[in-house]
Amino acid sequence: MSETIKKTVIVRNLRHDHLSEMLAIEQRCFPDPWSEEWLEAMIHASVISWGSFTGKELIGYLIAMPSKDYTHLVNLAVDAPYRRKGIAQLMMNYLYLFVRRHKQNLIKLEVRRSNTPAIEFYKQENFCEVGFQKEYYKDKEDALVYNLEVK
Ligand SMILES: CC(C)(COP(=O)(O)OP(=O)(O)OC[C@H]1O[C@@H](n2cnc3c(N)ncnc32)[C@H](O)[C@@H]1OP(=O)(O)O)[C@@H](O)C(=O)NCCC(=O)NCCS
Questions:
Q1: What is the per-residue pLDDT across 29-77, written as a single tens digit (0 to 9) for each?
Q2: Ligand 1 pocket check: which of 52, 121, 133, 147 to mutate, most ligand atoms within 8 Å of Cβ?
Q3: Domains of the chain: which residue ranges?
Q4: Most-buried pick from 15, 51, 58, 144 (CB within 10 A)?
Q5: Residue nearest ligand 1's atom 43 by CA
Q6: What CATH number does the domain located at 3-149 have?
Q7: Counting atoms of ligand 1 from 1, which one is nearest the CA of 78?
Q8: Which residues of 7-44 are buried (b: 16+ CB within 10 A; e: fewer)?
Q9: Which residue owns the Cα nearest ligand 1 atom 10?
Q10: Please, are residues 148 and 107 in contact by the beta-carbon 8 Å criterion?
């Protein structure tokens, strides 16, 4: 993990004017990217919509929706040139802080069965596979459901 890049990265709230950069990352990262309208709606609707920035450049983001019983991690992406440098881990650490501060202890997420890099990432963050949702995605791929109990 490169400490050098991590030291220059700042995590802060996403705003409307980050949308075009977000959309570009979303389209590079996912086979079924969210639309600009959906990203915008999520920025407004989600309590947690954070971007990782190096200088002014957006290089990744995390979107999550806290509810009464758990926090749902709905989107996590890091642009390819910045992967394996601890950026997703950095954003997750902020999420754990948020969850603890709000006296919750459960994070849930869905991930494509074929998305090995993300699955490896969640496993090393200590998430546990707790089930699956059949044909969850538009192309009918199943989602694996992962939970983390935050200590
Ligand atoms: C999954 C994703 C967010 C990980 O982001 P990242 O910033 O590269 O992750 P980190 O650098 O914080 O990884 C921390 C650790 O997770 C594990 N990990 C991350 N990516 C991995 C990969 N491709 N293969 C195996 N292990 C991986 C490693 O243990 C890594 O530590 P190391 O690099 O010291 O070995 C990124 O690959 C991504 O944006 N993918 C495309 C979008 C996506 O699939 N999002 C998830 C949707 S559910």
A1: 999 999 999 999 999 887 899 999 999 999 999 999 999 999 999 999 9
A2: 121
A3: 3-149
A4: 51
A5: 77
A6: 3.40.630.30
A7: 39
A8: eebebeebeeebbebbbebbeebeeebbeeeebeebbe
A9: 86
A10: yes
Assess whether the C-beta atom of 115 lies below 6 angstroms from ligand 1: yes
Three-state DSSP class for 1?
Answer: coil
Using the mean position of ligand 1's atoms as its centre, give its distance from the Cα of residue 79 in Å: 11
Going by alpha carbons, the residue nearest to atom 22 of ligand 1 is 117
Question: Over the stretch 101-126, which tens digit does the pLDDT of each residue have?
Answer: 998 899 999 999 999 999 999 999 99
4 band by pLDDT with thresholds 50, 70 and 90: confident
For ligand 1, pick from 84, 144, 145 the residue to mutate: most ligand atoms within 8 Å of CB: 84
Least confident of 43-57, 84-98, 127-141: 43-57
Closest CA to ligand 1's atom 8: 83
Amino acid identity, residue 72?
H
